[in-house]
Amino acid sequence: EYSSYTDRIISLEWQKQVDFPYSVHSFSSDVLLNNFDNLFSSRTNSPLAPYLIPARPMKVLSGFEHEPLLQQFVGLTQGKPQLDQDARTARFEALDYLSEIFKLQLSETVVMENVRTDEVIAALFQQFGIESFQYNLERGRNRIPFLFFERGKDASVCFREIMQAEGGQLWIDEQGIIRFTPRLSTISDPVISFTESNISSLSTTGDTE
Prior knowledge:
Structural class: mainly beta
Number of helices: 3
Distance between the termini: 43 Å
Largest sheet: 6 strands, antiparallel
Strand content: 25-35%
Order of helices and strands: EEEEEEHEHEEHEE
Number of strands: 11
């Protein structure tokens, strides 16, 4: 359960970065709150004192007055709040869950044959306890004949290697769902229909996935 501190907000920021050429996105957030009563101070009698620890879930929502708020970010705090005793403020910095996964190492060796990028990503997610409802992966276009990731290898390296080969996009959306799209997504709705009456010849080249 999340608690709201809207009335204490001084400034609110969130941003997205793309790690080129790996096409991996990362989100971060910086929130500055009023701490006039030491609510966010751990060395006080604050009821929050026992919970002011790193890796606490945090959501950022924004919107206009009299309109529903829209969620913009979800992630984990990157340490205890940074306190400014003179200004009576507390600053929280957070990264998305995908960035947290990249800090980990493989607990088991991964060996796979003749697999697509999305299948590899799903296998890596399983190692870190991510359930299928927590991600949405489109069908990858790159097929890997043989893949070997040794136990102890940095997760960030594993994801970046397969994403660089795929050329797609890997990110976590505003609701905390991890998403993957290939370099060319399949268009489900037709733009124009070609029939015998409007074409004289037809040939195909390139990617047939």
